[in-house]
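Q: My hope is that you can spare some time for a protein that puzzles me. Underneath my words sits a plain record pairing an amino acid chain with its backbone structure tokens. Those tokens are not coordinates but codes from a learned vocabulary of shapes. Thank you; the sequence and its tokens follow:
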Amino acid sequence: PDNNKRRMLQFSFKLTLNQKSQMDYITTSIRKNIWYYKDRLSISRGPCDLSILRNCWVNGIIDENTLVWGPGLDQWLPIKNIKTLINLIRIPEVQIATFLKKELVIKSNINIIRKLNNHRRSTWTDSLN
């Protein structure tokens, strides 16, 4: 929340009082909204609040191209098209957790799988000879 306020303050000199109140309303509405998302199999999931969406982001279940829908939207939209929502999901804590998970968990698991596959591949090619 503090980051969003800082961003808004950076642009506050350009906004009228009416525009500022609209931005506050939009940010509050998105923060309190209940969201639905479509997984990679296009199955609708939800209802989700912001904390669930953040957890899904960290775990790689959703990304910026994931389609979301919430009250007030006419159709499903990619998260990246809802600027306020993506900023509320990708807070610094989420970005750090995503990076750590990718570097410490996923890469090590991929390396283990590659070694196993190399061993299987060499065994398979040896059996062909």
Q: What stands out?
A: Strands lie at 35-38, 44-48, 67-69, 77-78. The helical segments are 2-10, 17-32, 50-58, 83-89, 92-128. The first strand starts at residue 35 and ends at 38.
